[in-house]
Amino acid sequence: MKTSIATVSLSGELPQKLSAIARAGFDGVEIFENDFLAFDGSARDVGRMVRDHGLDITLFQPFRDFEGMPEPQRSRTFDRAERKFDVMQELGTDLVLVCSNVSPVALGGLDRAAADFHELGERAARRGLRVGYEALAWGRHINDHRDAWEIVRRADHGHIGLILDSFHTLARKIDVGSIRSIPKEKIFIIQLADAPLISMDLLYWSRHYRNMPGEGDLPVLDFMRAVAATGYDGYLSLEIFNDQFRGGSPKSIAVDGHRSLVYLGDQVIRSEPDVAMTVPPMPDAVEVIGVAFVEFAASADEAEELASLLRGLGFRKTGKHRTKRVDRYCQGAINLVINTERQGFAHSSHAVHGMSAYAFGLHVADAHAAFDRALALGAEPFEQPADSSGTSMPAVRGVGGDILYFIDGKGGPEGIWDEEFDPVDDARAAGDAGLLRFDHVAQTMNFDEMLTWLLFYTSILKAKKTPMVDIIDPSGVVRSQVVENETGSLRITMNGAENRRTLAGHFLAEKFGSSMQHLAFETGDIFASAVALNANGFTPLEISANYYDDVEARFGLDPDLSDRLKAANILYDRDDYGEYFQLYSPNYGEGFFFEIVERRGYRGYGGPNAIFRIAAQKRHIRPQGMPK
Fold first, then answer.
1. pTM, whole model, 2 decimals?
2. Which CATH number describes the domain made up of 435-624?
3. Residue 49: Cβ-neighbour burial (10 angstroms; 0-12, 13-18, 19+)
4. What CA–CA distances, in Å, run from 470 to 126, 357, 447, 548?
5. Homologous superfamily of 2-271 in CATH?
6. Eight-state DSSP code of residue 379
7. Is residue 621 over pLDDT 80?
């Protein structure tokens, strides 16, 4: 499989874009005309620069408003085409994209358009060049790839072919099965883009909201299956118009793009094993058995304060690392680790972010297979100096710089604790609070990073994304999306902040970057847990009394249940599948907190309660300088 990306997909100047594209592992690049025109150098300079990066120029684009023009415009279009051909030859590429005409003076008629393309093919052939025709979803007369193919077929010229773009086909909900009958030699290149499902003008949707395959809601995999069925084995190229990407890191966006193509190719091969597409082999997507642990980086004083909070939650110190300043706290199947090392990655993370949950481990069937898949999809391996007493745990760097460990073994994660930790009898332990396991891990990031995180997790892990929802903060909106698996053993909530006035935005600003903001633990009886927590001296986040009057009326709750909820500061929600109960800790530091939940068939995450929880949290931290 050969990969390419259009320069328009990335921010920055042309040299910066080419560097990011090459480092991400692409084989080729589409030169968008505006990027060339804005560059202070000749076409030969650009071609040389591209080749110095080890890339091919797969396409020069776009050539607009060509076919079906009346005179005198028609003659001028051929003059313009010859100028484009001059630039192509200087660049060192043989393919140009002609998009369907949108001019108000354009004339319809398949035969008229075909005749124009036949003549253009003759001119291209004299120079050894090729012309690809693409149907824009908003084209004046041609807005369907089936009509574009019919024009190419009638043009009947070896130097005229079809360019298929997933967005233009899928945005108009055109049957992708029609692609399967197109001869592969007449498909000159495939352009790919996904997009969220939004009801808006097609042109505006395309120009502002495209994203990488797998990041949106369009059935790009179905499109690619149809392309693969033709036997096509040429370039797969990304053409992404996105406002966030234009302001983002070209390196990060390029890595996302390459990951999306490799992941898409892997999905196609697994669903259509007989296709001609060649994709580097990689292990299956990772089935997560559970979250094995979460690790905190802290100073000695912070560690003592955090340990006190954990004991209030019913955790007990059960182990001390044999060679490192690392302690283990447990309850049920929940493992929390506090690292106060004065060197290594945890120390570096603490120096930048302060006390934070900077790493977590996933219990999987085959850790090395999970690691290999992550690397095949562009993840960066994480390594620390070997420790003679340490157990090898394959790990990669997460999107925000945190660490993701993969853990397996016949005994599961317990092998780590047995091999590396000495048991400890915690004399200061309080009573068990009935917490059973991790329910979900919540990570907060800037909104423009969310698609990167989403693609990272869904490509590596056997998991799906849920629809994005808006979390209402009294100071703004936070976008939230979840990556979860079918069994519920993996739930990662991602919250994207757009301004620092929100609680999530304040947390990001104070932590100098994305991080886990809260951990949610599951209990089988939240009322019993609340009693145990109270006995431990734990003080829950205090919820406004007005909330309980409303929730009683909204759900028709028995007044006795409403009173029990109010007395324990427990929030309540309900969906079509069951009930949900939530109990929160106060904030620790600049916005980190814990959550305790009980699910009774419920499948969501208590989104409607977020505004009340956030208001209570802001009341709690406002004396420390939280923006109003």
1. 0.92
2. 3.10.180.10
3. middle
4. 56, 25, 12, 22
5. Divalent-metal-dependent TIM barrel enzymes (3.20.20.150)
6. P
7. no
